[in-house]
Design a protein that fits this description.
- This protein is mainly α and about 100 residues long.
- Helix 3 runs antiparallel to helix 4.
- It has four helices and no strands.
Length: about 100
Amino acid sequence: MNKEFWIYLLILAGSTYLIRAIPFAAMKKKITNKFVCSFLYYIPYTVLAAMTFPAALYCTGNLVAAALGLAVGMLFALKEKGLTVVALVSSATVFAVDLLMGVI
């Protein structure tokens, strides 16, 4: 590996470490503001949704099949089915819709 790779890696590692370490160093006492606490509580869910939703729609190359698979997966998740069941039913839906659209 060349020298530039290690330089880039160190800069990236340092910057990501600082982004995580500065808030801990800056905050000396517990956060009591309810708005800030709720904001920080929902950040991981928001980021996960922002990364997952576009990937779920554009991963198959067929927007209709992906949207139907996503809708079925959300329906099963709202009915509190397990993660394996949701994944299998969503995948089967995408496969079936994709198969039907290819035939029709």
